[in-house]
UniProtKB/TrEMBL annotation:
This is Uncharacterized protein. It comes from the Bacteria. It comes from Novosphingobium guangzhouense.
Length: 248
């Protein structure tokens, strides 16, 4: 049986009558929903995780003011915490590649490129394994839950202009909300546009220097279709104007 997931890294500073909790040496997952702060034998519902070292409580802290106190963040839905951490790890790896020249380029002369992502696969243990172009691998943690029941075979296309191993893993996440039917989709990161003809297009701009910003994409079941949801987390507004949606 897997251990219950808690967050206990670092210490916290709390003030009587305040909703602000400051972490010291903490590494909290920003914007993760459904947490309780356990402190000195009492639990306090968390309103928001503002960053790696900042939490806002729903109600003011009623205990004694303390500095460097031991704590535990207890997820109300523990099954989704590992998946959220894995996604954050992937985004940090991509941000690191961007910062080191592995993705994109500046407007100057030709420089040496950094490592890129050439593959991502969920192994038999349910861990997302990312392979870099320099031969290194990154274990992004557990992202795959138990396999669901096989569905009916669909009808394939007679050919297209996609000539790359675009989808490396398509799996059911554990801990989805009640009534949810979400599936995770991982795609490779390339140095240019892949050879795919888009019938619809959407852009999200993420600043390179914002380590808490990220993009999310998932497939959501609908009665007679599957909707691809694309969104941004902690990305500042307004976004620059993008292309209009084109339909065939």
């Amino acid at each position: 049986m897997a251990d219950f997931e808690f967050e206990t890294t670092g210490l916290v500073n709390v003030t009587n009558g305040s909703v602000d909790v400051i972490g010291v040496g903490t590494n909290w997952v920003a914007s993760y929903p459904g947490l309780m702060l356990w402190l000195d034998g009492l639990s306090y519902p968390v309103k928001s995780v503002n960053g790696r070292n900042s939490i806002t409580l729903v109600h003011p802290y009623q205990g004694s003011t303390a500095t460097g106190a031991k704590y535990a963040l207890v997820p109300v839905h523990p099954g989704t915490l590992n998946a959220q951490k894995a996604v954050i790890t992937v985004l940090e790896a991509i941000n690191n590649l961007i910062a080191n020249g592995g993705i994109g380029g500046g407007g100057g002369g030709t420089g040496s490129g950094g490592p890129g992502i050439i593959g991502a696969v969920v192994n038999s243990a349910g861990h997302l394994i990312i392979t870099l172009s320099d031969g290194r691998t990154i274990d992004a943690g557990l992202v795959k839950g138990a396999d669901g029941q096989d569905g009916q075979d669909g009808t394939g296309s007679g050919g297209g202009d996609i000539s790359m191993a675009a989808i490396q893993g398509f799996s059911q996440f554990a801990g989805t909300p009640v009534g949810g039917g979400l599936a995770g989709l991982f795609i490779p990161v390339t140095t240019g546009a892949p050879n795919i003809t888009l019938t619809q297009r959407s852009e999200i701009v993420i600043p390179w220097d914002d380590k808490d910003a990220g993009a999310a994409m998932w497939v959501e079941k609908r009665p007679n279709a599957a909707a691809i949801i694309v969104g941004a987390a902690n990305v500042p507004l307004p976004q620059p104007g993008g292309d209009e949606v084109n339909r065939r």
